[in-house]
Design brief:
Length: about 290
């Protein structure tokens, strides 16, 4: 028998349950055992042969990523940054996992570093190839030190992003309140966000920057000078159109998302090509009406 020794009883139990579930097909003849009194998981020598060793290593790797990584991240949040509320922890961990899963490409460059898979698997290979009983906590402390340090850096980045998102939500709430009390100055306008950003009125006439600036309610710039973009958001909020026809080929860019989040159902999003079609149709109908 080779033993994996744990400091915490819960860790020993979790590892035992994890291995038993993953290696169930081999359990009848070679049972993995749990010594609860001494916090030890006992693995028969039979599991160190050929295919079984490969599956054993893979199971321990999955235990680290699927069970312990979450524990370590939450411990860092609580002990280093005093985030003890589980709901807040969940939101911050969601940011980290979304980057790991490739869903937040804008944060990925800041969370590069030690490759999870290669670094952890290499350490697991080393410890199991030695075929000695070992302390799991010492294994983490020494052989996975670079990895746990990387987790701390990820947490720091995720906290910064979380704080920014909280501020953004406050920003949205404040400006929605402003918009709710604002009387529409136009029934609708057209906004094209392409290489340049151009406003058009109901007659498809371009609205010059100087004219847009005159529409801005000065309270917006005084009360929210950092967050309100005087070139786009401030004119839109001040005009408060009943409908915004927004044309863009990149609906996920931050400015477009902010406009949609502020004006919600008032925004109708279409590709840039649709604007040119709308404009042509408008002037065609206008000429026909004159005739």
């Amino acid at each position: 028998m080779i033993e994996i020794i744990f400091q915490k009883k819960q860790d020993a139990w979790n590892m035992y349950q994890h291995l038993v579930a993953r290696l169930a097909s081999w359990q009848e003849t070679n049972s993995i055992l749990l010594n609860e009194d001494r916090n030890r998981v006992l693995i028969p020598e039979e599991f160190y042969k050929n295919e079984k060793l490969h599956v054993l290593k893979k199971s321990v790797y999955e235990f680290i990523l699927k069970v312990k990584r979450d524990d370590w991240l939450r411990a860092i949040l609580a002990e280093s940054y005093f985030y003890n509320d589980s709901e807040e922890q969940d939101q911050i961990l969601d940011i980290i996992y979304s980057v790991i899963e490739g869903n937040r490409k804008e944060l990925a460059p800041f969370m590069e570093g030690v490759g999870e898979q290669g670094m952890i698997q290499s350490s697991i290979n080393e410890i199991f190839n030695e075929r000695l009983s070992f302390s799991f906590d010492s294994f983490v402390m020494f052989r996975l030190k670079a990895y746990t340090e990387q987790l701390s850096q990820w947490v720091e980045i995720a906290i910064d992003e979380y704080k920014m998102e909280q501020e953004y939500q406050v920003f949205l709430h404040t400006l929605r309140d402003f918009l709710e009390d604002r009387k529409p100055q136009m029934s609708h306008l057209y906004l094209v966000i392409d290489e340049n950003m151009v406003f058009y009125n109901q007659q498809f006439t371009e609205m010059k920057r100087s004219d847009l600036f005159k529409t801005i309610d000065r309270k917006l710039l005084v009360n929210h000078p950092v967050y309100v973009d005087s070139g786009t958001i401030a004119p839109l909020l001040s005009i408060a159109p009943e409908t915004i026809y927004l044309y863009t080929d990149d609906p996920h860019q931050p400015l477009v998302r902010t406009i949609i989040n502020l004006f919600e159902e008032r925004v109708k999003v279409s590709p840039v090509s649709a604007f040119h079609d709308e404009k042509v149709n408008f002037f065609k109908e206008d000429r026909e009406n004159i005739q």
